[in-house]
Write a structure and sequence with these properties.
The protein is mainly α. It is built from ten helices and no strands.
């Protein structure tokens, strides 16, 4: 007897009013939540969508974060007596952006994006991705800015003395050194962003948590779908943490050589 036949037999017993042992009842609920009607495909699709949203949001966040961090660092490292009006205006905008985003809850930002900014759109998953990217950009900006400020100013001055412009100095001297300092924080931001993708369900986005809710609505039982999603998140976060640690060890080994 295969799993499907066993499930049908046990379901028939439940319908007849019989009480099943706990282990058989556990199997019935597990099968109904993950295997009946190919429901595992919903979870697999949810995982792929979650990874896609995470990667796109992280790319957007890194681009925004690096841009904001470079502007703020350039403003803070101006020589005494020099004041660039354009840079000051851009710095004010960047400070307002990071203050507002970091000072308001992620779920509120998600609802504003879905219900106000993109109220006419029905692509809720993409709206959620944009909201996550904008939110991540503010945190990445502070991570990158801290990394850039941690590099000794003498490194920038050495680059300037060699005839490099500000952009080339940042590109070839400062950023490569700062990258190793900010890598652990960026890895943690990726993991946080991966878990925050569950919030796009609040505006109708379809990802991993949405799959669990859809299965729960069909089976009228949400415990197994939610526990299953929690396990999936946990396993994937453990994998990402392991990969991050491995990359950090590689970078430390390269420094010793």
């Amino acid at each position: 007897m295969n799993w499907a036949e066993l499930y049908q037999a046990l379901t028939a017993q439940i319908t007849a009013g019989e009480t099943l042992p706990w282990y058989q009842d556990l199997f019935v609920n597990f099968y109904k939540a993950f295997l009946e009607g190919g429901r595992w495909e919903l979870y697999a699709s949810g995982v792929l969508t979650t990874l896609e949203v995470t990667i796109l949001a992280l790319i957007m966040g890194v681009i925004l974060g690096v841009l904001v961090a470079v502007i703020r660092t350039a403003h803070d490292q101006q020589r005494p007596g020099r004041h660039n009006v354009v840079l000051a205006a851009l710095n004010a905008v960047c400070k307002a952006y990071t203050t507002i985003i970091r000072g308001t809850p992620m779920i509120v930002q998600m609802l504003i994006m879905g219900s106000i900014v993109f109220a006419s759109s029905r692509n809720y998953t993409m709206i959620g991705t944009i909201a996550l990217g904008i939110n991540s950009g503010a945190y990445v900006a502070e991570i990158v800015r801290g990394g850039l400020m941690s590099v000794d100013v003498g490194q920038s001055e050495a680059g300037r003395s060699l005839g490099l412009g500000y952009v080339d100095t940042m590109r070839f001297i400062v950023i490569p050194q700062a990258f190793k300092n900010i890598l652990p924080a960026l890895g943690n931001e990726f993991i946080t962003l991966f878990k925050d993708t569950a919030l796009i369900t609040t505006i109708g986005g379809k990802e991993l948590l949405y799959a669990a809710q859809a299965v729960g609505a069909k089976t009228y039982a949400v415990m197994f779908p939610y526990l299953g999603v929690a396990v999936i998140y946990l396993v994937m976060v453990m994998i990402f943490t392991w990969l991050q640690g491995k990359l950090e060890r590689r970078l430390r080994e390269s420094d010793r050589r």
